[in-house]
Amino acid sequence: MGDNKGIHILQATTATQEYISDDPTWASGDFTLISTDGIRFRVPSWFILAASPVFRDADGSGTTSGDKQLDFTDSHCETASTLCDFLALVTTSKLHTLWVSYGVVELCEHISNLVTFLRKYDCEGPLHSLILAFHYAFLLRDDRDSSLEALLLGAMADNVDYCKKAIRASKWEYVVDTSPTNPLAEARRGCFTLLPCNMPLIVYELFPTKYSWALGRSWPDAADDRGRWVELFAGLVEKASASR
Predict the structure, then answer these.
(1) Which of 73, 96, 129 delimits the end of a domain?
(2) Record's superkingdom (predicted)?
């Protein structure tokens, strides 16, 4: 049996706690998830156990019977917002419907939190579904350049091939906002946003170090040749991974 990463699945309780409220969408099931910001989700257990070997290992300890309850503790990636994204993904293999309404920075934050959650609990199948769903819902769209978000997704998933797809799909003149005034939350105008120096700081800080380093280090040698930049970038990521 694998490492359950300190997860403790408890016997579900019917007691009402003042600081907990019920999510209106996820209200029926034998597995209760409680987010760090006090939202309770009731879900059929097979969705949760099929998504993660960590949850299966914890459930297989034999310490509980009947309905189960899992209280999350990480206030960064185990909030109600991330659990909503996670449940939409594992029950439909699609993105949460609200994702299409998010701006670049907000969407990047959702990607970061969800991928962190999926990797923390070894959800390899859902992570693959996330990349596939994002690809068709965003990267292939003609009316929106989502290459920065796709690049972040690939980097956080440690998927170099998807990062390469994001770079190839990007526009060289990509403006996040028509009138940016805040460098923390907005990209530089009229410039290539996939370069770390042009990203909004909020997005830049979400990137794993080796990926942001490889992006910036490979660009000067590419000389505006996108194909060359893709290969140089991928090679540097590979070298950085091998050195650790």
Answers:
(1) 73
(2) Eukaryota
